Amino acid sequence: MTKGIDMTPTQHKAAAETLLADLTSTTRNQFTDQRILAMTTHAVLAQTAGTGSHYTSADALLAEAELPGRAPSVTQFRIAHTHALLADRA
Question: What is the sign of the dihedral through the CA atoms of 90, 8, 55 and 59?
Answer without folding.
Answer: positive
